[in-house]
Amino acid sequence: MGCCRSSRLSMPLIGTxxxxxxxxxxxxxxxxxAGLSKTWSGxxxxxxxxxxxxxxxxxxxxxxxxxxxxxxxxxxxxxxxxDAEVAAGDPVEVxxxxxxAFQAWMIETRSASTVLNKHKGLQQFFKWLMLDEGEIDRSxxxxxxxxxLPEKLIPVVxxxxxxxxxxxxxxxxxxQLRDEAVICLYCNTGARLSEVGNLLLDDIDxxxxxxxxxxxxxxxxxxxxxxxxxxxxxxxxRARAKHKAACLPDLWLAxxxxxxxxxxxxxxxxxxxxxxxxxxxxxxxxxxxxLPMSGSVPTATPAT
Length: 304
What we know:
This protein has helices spanning about 1-10, 20, 30, 40-55, 60-75, 85-90, 95-110, 110-130, 160-165, 175-190, 195, 225-240, 265-275, and strands at about 205, 210-215, 220-225, 300. The protein is mainly alpha-helical. A four-stranded antiparallel β-sheet has the order 1-2-3-4, with no helix packed on it. Strand 2 and strand 3 (about 220-225) form a beta hairpin. The longest helix is centred in the middle third of the chain and has 21 residues, at about 110-130. It starts with a helix and ends with a strand. Residues about 5-20 and about 280-300 have low confidence and may be disordered.
């Protein structure tokens, strides 16, 4: 507790805001732009600053910047086009043919959904380069077709499978109580992994039993959860209050140390528990339709 108190005193200005509004994480641009020309690197740094000023989430900014950096690397290392070397040095020299060749190459080496994300990222980059910076008159993304996504049926976990995974959380240890609460809340609400994983302590409202999710594009909503989830969350909150990192604003805490449990840590936990002997391995980590839990129906309302 003393450590938390001193860290607050050392940052009085930041302490006057919530973590979510005050924190705009800085990406490792040196790593993202490694090996790129100074011109490409300069544009990407400027674009990141523009995205940060627009309050774009960290994951969105990373995916956008990575798409542009991967195009630049493709042009410099893999493209068979004789004029690709010029485009690898300056993004204003990129043509529609360069983008189409890059997209075709990505389709051969990545999934269709990944290529679609790259396509959308490049659309935004060249739109910024054209409209905000005035560096180009037309975007090379014009008339570049979006890759088609094959329709896939996502398996939904049955009640009995959910119960089996929850059975691995039986006990009174901190990690067991935390994981049970995570799984119950995740299954009961059908929220995205990032939404559940990035919850703050203040996002849980015990009366009525509801949670305030912060969705993509600043789309907030409040979702009610059932009695089984409420019991699991209450048990976890009692254990959390005794944790040495209890002063952190994050809802989910790591078992040891002064750290939060990040969404990727939750993903690893879900896979580990679902893959134990006799358990199903189809725990879903996306968003959309809630996973079934007997006796509980989530209700979503706009957050106020």
